[in-house]
Amino acid sequence: MRAARLTAWRAPLEIVDLPDPEPPKGGVVVRVLACGVCRSDWHAWVGADPDVSLPHTPGHEFCGEVIAVGQGVTRWRLGDRVIAPFILACGACPDCAAGNQTICLDQAVPGFTIPGAFAEQIAVPFADANLTALPASISPELAAGLGCRVTTAWHALTGRAALRPGEWLAVFGGGGVGISALLLGRALGARVVVVDIVPEKLAYATSLGADAVINAAQTDAAQAVRDITGGGADLAIEALGVAATTIGALKSLRKLGRMVQVGMPAGDHAIMPIPMDVVYSGQLAIYGTRGMPSWRYPSLLSLIEGGHVDLSPLVTRRIALSGVNSELAAFDKAAPPGVAVITDFSS
């Protein structure tokens, strides 16, 4: 099979031929129909993720068709179209039994702890516990976008911080997660303000229905959020993983507000100076989140299939496997609006 291999940090991925994977016990092999290119892949590319060792195949936002079934799999058959969360939980431990699959100690993470989906095929462990049937009405390229950014935003909004209709949602970072939070927040009945420093991303957010946008390069973003919302946001989503946006998100909240740290703090941002006086005086709640348990897919897919949210504007670039390198390099600075998805694995 063809795959894009990371052989040196920050070096262009090499397009190589690798042996087709075998289905593990309890797992399947999926022919990849589409795979997103995410900022988390950039963290792997630059060597900021300790789980990645070289050589390695990145890619964690994927969907596809089951082409081989391992021993013990009961739910899936050849030809099934499926989608998977990027955290593949064991399904058998106490945390999984409690529904908390994202903290499973025996988890596998494609593109990080196991070979990923920048390839024509991927072996998926723990298939019965993790895979979800992909409805025919949802295109592969959109499904690939769900695999990390949309699902992470959905879990942050509904599984962690319980966004309610009529609340003000402040989204710090207008990338894939941020735009997903905007679209989902509006579908849930919230009013949404998006903060970024890139005019094109702010214009994009406006075109998708943001109630307000703020350019943090031109003003005090936290104060601007408080002014627009009449005292502060009820919920803030930090969608970049850097100190400036985390601090801004906290300072944008009203009393008793909630903030969810969605962006991955890595490298120099693994430890941040948090304004604990603001947390204390405002009696704020801070949540961390990473991924989404697979059992929460049906609620999200139902929202999409029912026509309550249109996520298709997320996918702005359909690329070939060979186009991954330019997309990864783009994350060195402000990447273009929207999400890039690999749909052509032959070139």
From TrEMBL:
<dbReference type="Pfam" id="PF08240">
    <property type="entry name" value="ADH_N"/>
</dbReference>
<dbReference type="InterPro" id="IPR013154">
    <property type="entry name" value="ADH-like_N"/>
</dbReference>
<dbReference type="InterPro" id="IPR036291">
    <property type="entry name" value="NAD(P)-bd_dom_sf"/>
</dbReference>
<feature type="domain" description="Enoyl reductase (ER)">
    <location>
        <begin position="10"/>
        <end position="342"/>
    </location>
</feature>
<keyword id="KW-0560">Oxidoreductase</keyword>
<keyword id="KW-0479">Metal-binding</keyword>
<comment type="similarity">
    <text>Belongs to the zinc-containing alcohol dehydrogenase family.</text>
</comment>
<dbReference type="InterPro" id="IPR013149">
    <property type="entry name" value="ADH-like_C"/>
</dbReference>
<protein>
    <submittedName>
        <fullName>Alcohol dehydrogenase</fullName>
        <ecNumber>1.1.1.1</ecNumber>
    </submittedName>
</protein>
<dbReference type="InterPro" id="IPR050129">
    <property type="entry name" value="Zn_alcohol_dh"/>
</dbReference>
<dbReference type="InterPro" id="IPR002328">
    <property type="entry name" value="ADH_Zn_CS"/>
</dbReference>
<dbReference type="GO" id="GO:0008270">
    <property type="term" value="F:zinc ion binding"/>
</dbReference>
<dbReference type="GO" id="GO:0004022">
    <property type="term" value="F:alcohol dehydrogenase (NAD+) activity"/>
</dbReference>
<dbReference type="Pfam" id="PF00107">
    <property type="entry name" value="ADH_zinc_N"/>
</dbReference>
<dbReference type="InterPro" id="IPR011032">
    <property type="entry name" value="GroES-like_sf"/>
</dbReference>
<dbReference type="InterPro" id="IPR020843">
    <property type="entry name" value="ER"/>
</dbReference>
<keyword id="KW-0862">Zinc</keyword>
